[in-house]
Design brief:
The protein has five helices and four strands, in the order βαβαββααα. It is an alpha/beta fold and 169 residues long.
């Protein structure tokens, strides 16, 4: 199983405790890494793979989204791979950063009629896959990424978050 070194920064109020976020992140990201390594034959370096998770708010993620993507609005999750990779490539020892906005996650969870923790779990998996080069810009890419998310979430005991929806493009 891939060894992970997850660094967490809680940068806004309203999130669960750092200990709770660490436990959840290790469980969710660990399951995603294990699935990628076993089922997708994703290579991992022999040393621990490092990534950082930033638990933020809408104001901060809006600034980041505007600066890096030219979209002046909050979003649920942003991923920043440390190095460009394609699915199946060997990543470097530093995967990158995942930034998540609490208010957007809360709002979406209510709209989707899902518990906050389940939606956050989905977004952690989604952000993690982006660090491995998975994307959803084209329909075929979206179907592949969403299929992976669904299978990983099933391993975590969660239902298909895309059931009844067209792929995200």
């Amino acid at each position: 199983m891939p060894e992970l070194d997850i660094q967490i920064s809680v940068e806004s109020d309203g999130w669960p405790t750092e200990e709770a976020l660490t436990a959840m992140s290790e469980r969710v990201i660990g399951a995603a890494a294990k699935y990628l390594a076993a089922e997708e034959e994703q290579p991992f370096p022999s040393q621990p793979v490092e990534l950082s998770l930033v638990f933020s708010d809408d104001a901060q993620i809006r600034e980041i989204n505007a600066e890096w993507r030219g979209k002046d609005k909050p979003t649920n999750v942003l991923s920043f791979p440390a190095f460009p990779v394609e699915p199946g490539d060997m990543p470097g020892p530093m995967l990158g950063d995942i930034v998540i906005a609490r208010e957007t996650v809360e709002r979406e969870a209510v709209e989707l009629d899902k518990p906050f923790d389940e939606h956050l779990t989905h977004l952690l998996v989604h952000g993690f896959l982006h660090l491995f080069g998975y994307d959803h810009m084209e329909t075929e890419e979206a179907e592949e990424m969403e299929g992976l998310e669904t299978r990983i979430l099933a391993k975590l005991g969660l239902s298909d978050p895309y059931a009844g929806q067209e792929p995200l493009v």
